[in-house]
Write a structure and sequence with these properties.
265 residues, Rossmann fold, 2 domains, 7-stranded mixed sheet, 11 strands, ATP binding
Length: 265
Amino acid sequence: MSAALSARGVVRRFQLDRREVVALAGIDLDVAAGEFIAILGASGCGKSTLLRLFAGLDAPDGGEVMHRGERITGPSLARGIVFQEHRLFPWLTVRQNVAAALLNAPGPASEKALTVQALIHLVGLHGFEEAWPHQLSGGMAQRAAIARGLANRPDVLLLDEPFGALDALTRARLQQELRRIWQRERTTTLLVTHDVDEALLLGQRVVVMTPRPGRIACILVLPPDLPRDHANADFARLRTQVLGILDAADPAQASLRTLIPETAA
């Protein structure tokens, strides 16, 4: 499969209290078309910074980020993004919020209306088209945000901890919904998370990052037949393995390697 997204030698630095902080140091990553990648790490490891670079909302200080082989120089409708906060417009209904993403898109209004309705149905908000954001639960608002992120049929969907502010039950439900949507649409997806279980439940590969400076410690390749079930022994073994990597990795010595779990044999 060809790479939908690529990072080559990416470096990003910030100034903090007159000192330089290296958020990302030498990141190399390829994301195949149609792949679901989870980027996992603790706060401060640079995972959201990397996502913003892929979104075109920030620029690297060194190296380059590419979409379909073209250097990313700014935001694009071909790359949809969903943040931890839903960021719905409070003065628009659910239908209008999703439709807002299509204001500058080509095509007749009737076709756009059908697209909006199909997306609302896809994320499970049928019957709430005319609801206002303040009338929605946190989970429902995030569903609407995901629908808006998919409105332009982006080549890539970028998710920056979209379920981080939700309660455990709602988060579990939306994780299952997101997996269902990806299995149906096969949109190339990057999910940033600090939740090990979420990364293992959703990702085909899990990119584990370590902080200060942000580096890729390893890439965990999940077997296609891995049961996405907390109670499963293979799943539990992988969780323990990843937690060990996060706990033991030395950020100064971390280097890229591919880790294939025993369950793949």
